[in-house]
Amino acid sequence: MKPKALILHATGTNRDLEAAQALELAGAEVEIVHLNLLRRGERRWMDYQLLALPGGFSYADALGAGKLLALDLTAYFAEQVRLFVERGRPVIGICNGFQALVKAGILPGDGAAKATLTFNDAGHFECRWVRLSPLSQRCIWTRGLEQDIACPVSHGEGKFVLDDPQALDDLRQRDQIALVYARPDGSPAAGVYPANPNGSLADIAGLCNPQGNVLGLMPHPEDHILPLQHPRWTRREGGLLGLPLFINGVRFAGEL
Length: 256
Description:
Elements: E1 4-9, H1 16-25, E2 29-34, H2 35-39, E3 50-53, H3 67-75, H4 78-86, E4 91-94, H5 96-103, E5 115-118, E6 126-134, E7 149-155, E8 159-162, H6 167-173, E9 177-182, E10 204-208, E11 214-217, H7 243-254
Parallel strand pairs: 1-2, 1-3, 3-4, 4-11
Antiparallel strand pairs: 5-8, 6-7, 6-9, 9-10, 10-11
């Protein structure tokens, strides 16, 4: 049987259909569920084997990007989310979803240093294609990926920072840095704009929890799951699809 994927929908979410397509192509049975259905008990968290928090502007980013969605997760669904994560079920938060996971304290996780995603160094909204290099073998989403990923970013608050810069070493030692920004040739971005589009610490584009089942990332790999989605596809350029990342997550969910 195909694993069932729950895609959370809140007012303002607008990238759930793209996430659904990526997870379906990866082999999951997908349902987009509004948070109110979960609050009323019309859907149950533990009926699903995979959770996705898609991108968009949940609650119009009032009080900060992903902040109100994070409050939903901690005020109404704290126990359900805790059980989902502790039982090792795959979770992915993309862009706004990553912001919510961080601001809810789900990432970096397990008492790690506090982190946030704040305004881009460039001082404006970034919408451009970037290259990502997978690093973590702990993260079930990036484990075994042999190629980089090319995909767009689309955010105004994507700069990853830690309240204690020394905690960066802990993230590295725990193998929690899942994805980093790279230059077009695949070499490290080294903090250089626009390869690193927001000024994130250590070029961090994606982060997992210590258990490795929760991934948050700012870029949108769900927007490059087919060759024709590459902006230079008509010039016979492409490759570096984001689909293998979703295949990893769905395959892991199916083994639970």
